[in-house]
Structures are given as structure tokens and as C-alpha cells.
Amino acid sequence: MGNKQFGLLDTWLLPLRQLHEHNYDFLRPMSTEEAAMKLAELNVREGLNVVKQKGVVLNAIHERELQLHGLIYDTRSALRTD
């Protein structure tokens, strides 16, 4: 991701930058495109983990068998699911 600054977007990008930094050794050997796709996948997984920590979601999972799904839409190759 580099250290390029995007002004107001920097606040929104901070979690993604931290995720990239945390997984840098894993992502480094990949091509730029492969690393970007993997980072997107890691971001979706992290988002699901955050949502799963919310009390109302936990209750719905236990009481009503709520299932959560993360999706990545790649306009070049159609829908990818996880």
C-alpha cells in the first residue's frame, strides 16, 4: 500500500494499512495483483470478525442460526465468495 497520503481517506484506510502491515511477510512474495486480492479477502474476513463480536449478532447466531457471508466482487472475473 505504501505510505501515500490520501487526505480525508486516510482515516478510512488506516485499518486496511494496519492489516497490510500485519500480513506484510505473507503478502510480500505475491505479485501486486495477487497480494491486492488476498488483502481484499483478509479485509472481508476481518470485517466479518468485527461484526461477529457485536452482541446483537452473537444473539442472532445462537438463537436464530444467523449465518454471515463475506463477498468480494471482482469486475474482471465475476463474483468470488468466501
UniProtKB/TrEMBL annotation:
Transmembrane segments: none annotated. It comes from the Eukaryota. It catalyses: hydrogencarbonate + H(+) = CO2 + H2O. Its EC number is 4.2.1.1. SUPFAM superfamilies: beta-carbonic anhydrase, cab. Keywords: Lyase, Zinc. GO terms for molecular function: carbonate dehydratase activity; zinc ion binding. It is an enzyme of class 4 (lyase). Belongs to the beta-class carbonic anhydrase family. Reversible hydration of carbon dioxide. This is Carbonic anhydrase. It comes from Penicillium crustosum. The lineage of its organism: Eukaryota, Fungi, Dikarya, Ascomycota, Pezizomycotina.
